[in-house]
Amino acid sequence: MGMAKVLCQFLAIFSLLTISFCAENFDVRKHLSTVTRYNAVKDVADSNFVPSTIPSECTPIHINLVARHGTRSPTKKRMRELDRLATSLEVLLSEAKRRLPEEDEALKKIPSWLWGWKSPWKGKKVGGELIPQGEEELYQLAIRIKEIFKCLFDEDYHPDIYTIRATQIPRASASAVSFGMGLFQGKGSLGPGQHRAFSVISESRASDTLLRFFESCASYKDYRKNQEPAVEKLKEPILDEVTSALAKRYPLNITRQETSSLWFLCKQEASLLNTTDQACGLFSPYEISLLEWTDDLEVFILKGYGKSINYHMGLPLLQDVVQSMEQAIKAKEEHHTPGSYEKARFRFAHAETVVPFSCLLGLFLDGAEFAQIQRDEALELPLKPPHKRNWRGSTVAPFAGNNILVLYSCPTSDASQYFVQVLHNEIPVPLPGCDYTDFCPFEVFKERVVSPHLKHDVNSICNVKQEQPEPCSVTSKFLKLFHFLFSQKKDDEAQFHKHKHEL
Ligand SMILES: *[C@@H]1O[C@H](CO)[C@@H](O)[C@H](O)[C@H]1NC(C)=O
Ligand SMILES: *[C@@H]1O[C@H](CO)[C@@H](O)[C@H](O)[C@H]1NC(C)=O
């Protein structure tokens, strides 16, 4: 920590731009891309946006939730990576010990936790499950939703009134159960918590076109497979930069792979164990912001605005949301009796679901970018720190990250008007497609946010194989891009504008 401070002061002298990374309150737990915990970011609103005041005559009549599962433990594959890290750290340390005299200052710089370090997940045979903190995230989310939309939850439970769907992946269905326990506690007769049973429905994981479209879309799978090496290439210069910084700071001959594993360890420690002074403490705040950016680039390219197939394949989910709203409006217009129509539809899935869904809504775009997306043009990559960027994995899809679409009915003298409000991580967000309001007339929402996507037919997008997979040419474009991104030249900006259309 002292290290970070000294470095900060040093940097601050040279560049005002770096000051933002040096603030005393830099909290690594907010900079873990999609490994960020919900609580670390849920109250971070865009301070430039003032949410609409909902007219008092308007009442919510239906809500849709699309949520990511809560905090989970690392997968088996990643746990083995940490075991390998322990082995190679041991080698590095004994090398340093052999090379340097016992009283050497450099040796004393090595943080004491590194000596004899073992992965906290060593010997664990299973991974990927929702952990107790993750249960808490969804449980508390349900309690807040029930409180905010009281009038929607005054009815007896029925599976057709409160629909709960999860993917067929245990951490997603456990998230749905945690949420349901929060939502319906006190409403049943089971145990002292007066719990009640509720149903969670899943499609088969291979044919879940609403929540696991990324698995049933063949051409997306091809795209992803072809693109992954390019994404790794894109990260290399940053990993190399951080690797040489670490090698200067500690007498350890660290490789790029070890830097990558240490960053992974930092994210797991900070997120799951609330430990920020071990692996995370090896990096300066600026280095963390660079590593965070590489993760955000990956999310952008493989799940977000980097390629239109990433979100167009999620259209059935958007249509399902709209259809649920139309049913709710019909029930309202036709005065259906309470208890006969749906009031909320809750869905629990993955970052690969929530990110594309947010893109379909046009979230996190500025005006020019929204126009580009509507013309099916690729966006430029999110800018490297210290430049500001809207696209942050920690905001777009932290653990338990979610979008809530609230349908409001606003009675007028002759008929009702309907509005849609989008809450991202429970905070109202402006819709670029709806003149940047967060309170969008339903007809405008359908016409300007949803309809432009409908010219794309999901079946043809997904089933038709790309005629000519061109991994080499795509890679070379990314190579060009990162040469310019990482070059130290002052004319970066000019070069950027030349290259961005090639993306
Ligand atoms: C560091 O490791 C690399 C490859 O493992 C090796 O080529 C290099 O000589 C080592 N440097 C030092 C200072 O030990
Ligand atoms: C995490 O650690 C911070 C101190 O760094 C402490 O204030 C906070 O209460 C801890 N959170 C949890 C959930 O233990």
Automatic annotation (TrEMBL):
Q: Give the family from UniProt.
A: Belongs to the histidine acid phosphatase family. MINPP1 subfamily.
Q: Which reaction does it catalyse?
A: (2R)-2,3-bisphosphoglycerate + H2O = (2R)-2-phosphoglycerate + phosphate; 1D-myo-inositol 1,2,5,6-tetrakisphosphate + H2O = 1D-myo-inositol 1,2,6-trisphosphate + phosphate; 1D-myo-inositol 1,2,4,5,6-pentakisphosphate + H2O = 1D-myo-inositol 1,2,5,6-tetrakisphosphate + phosphate; 1D-myo-inositol hexakisphosphate + H2O = 1D-myo-inositol 1,2,4,5,6-pentakisphosphate + phosphate
Task: List the molecular function annotations (GO) for this entry.
Answer: acid phosphatase activity; bisphosphoglycerate 3-phosphatase activity; inositol phosphate phosphatase activity
InterPro entries recorded: His_Pase_clade-2, His_PPase_superfam, Histidine_acid_Pase_euk
Give the superkingdom in one word: Eukaryota
Cysteines engaged in disulfide bonds, as pairs = C58-C410, C266-C280, C434-C440
Q: Which organism is it from?
A: Coptis chinensis
**What does the entry list under GO cellular component?**
plasma membrane
SUPFAM superfamilies, per the entry = Phosphoglycerate mutase-like
What's the short name of a Pfam family annotated to this entry? His_Phos_2
Q: Which keywords belong to this entry?
A: Cell membrane, Disulfide bond, Glycoprotein, Hydrolase, Membrane, Signal
Ranges that cross the membrane: none
Q: Where in the cell is it found?
A: Cell membrane
* EC nos: 3.1.3.62, 3.1.3.80
Q: What is this protein called?
A: Multiple inositol polyphosphate phosphatase 1
